[in-house]
């Protein structure tokens, strides 16, 4: 080996040693934090952040505060500056001049300012109640998509377990068929059960994919594809005091605030029977001919418009009709919500009773499956009976798990009927 080759080899060894030392001295890179698990509250918050009502809420609040500030001002409209200049230059041109500078200020009608402030306060409250009602509507859509996804996850999980059980039985049947203990027809029957389980699993996975996409469309978050290992935690049961306060429902509060806005609009319209008066203060400098001294003067004027007549009556009638319509709708909505809340409570009670029965059935079916599995292994039970017992046990497990989700969904629907957001 020549000198240049030995030099290159030595350089490579030193470089490799330096790189190894650098990597050893460098701190281990921290693993990226795991994403928060997707739950119902997080799904709702993500869905609400995408809504037009959420994005426009700051502007609506700014508008409500600006309207409240306008109702507290000294004049209903901004003052106006009036300028005029009169001269005889175009006809006789004797030097006559008249310059007038004034300010015109609109005046509140009697009671208009206080009622404008009341209307502004009512509209500010309506902005908040409208936001809560919009959040509740979003929560209803998210809850529906959420529990559809949970049902699809459960079905996929159960279908996967059924396929594993069918394959286990088919493997046992194949072993015993080769040993001459079972006929070829039994193996075909076991293989058919495996094919049926595979078909059910494919269908369940397709439904799960559709439910995931539906939830993603509403929230912007892609839920995990893996099937659930257990039923999800349910939302907490509503407090007893909350169930006795139907007026706290966001939909009722929104209608009540809208009715208040309509009533105060009608009161303000009744006050605004004419256009606002104007107070004018002007200063004038006038001279008759050239050479004369200008004579100053001050003008104080008051402009009082006539009544609005039919136009005013039309505005008042429309505002009162809107208030009456909203009050009637509020009464109907209150009755509907009370019936919906009672029906939701009854569904929760029924789901609890059904869950107790299905769990008892699942426990008995598991015990029976164990007995018949041992009997089948000993040759005391034929394959059709073993497959029937396996199907009954799987159906009992599925019903028990499905009932647990239905109870959680019923509790969620009860909270929705009470106007409670996801937790």
Automatic annotation (TrEMBL):
One of its GO terms (molecular function) is efflux transmembrane transporter activity. It is found in: Cell outer membrane. InterPro entries: OMP_efflux (IPR003423), TolC-like (IPR051906). It comes from Methylibium petroleiphilum (strain ATCC BAA-1232 / LMG 22953 / PM1). Its main location: membrane. Residues 1-30 form the signal peptide. Belongs to the outer membrane factor (OMF) (TC 1.B.17) family. GO terms for cellular component: cell outer membrane; efflux pump complex. PANTHER family: OUTER MEMBRANE PROTEIN TOLC (PTHR30026). Keywords: Cell outer membrane, Coiled coil, Membrane, Signal, Transmembrane, Transmembrane beta strand, Transport. The keyword Coiled coil applies. Residues 316-413 form a coiled coil. Residues 55-76, 220-244, 262-305 are annotated as: Disordered. The keyword Membrane applies. This is Putative outer membrane protein.
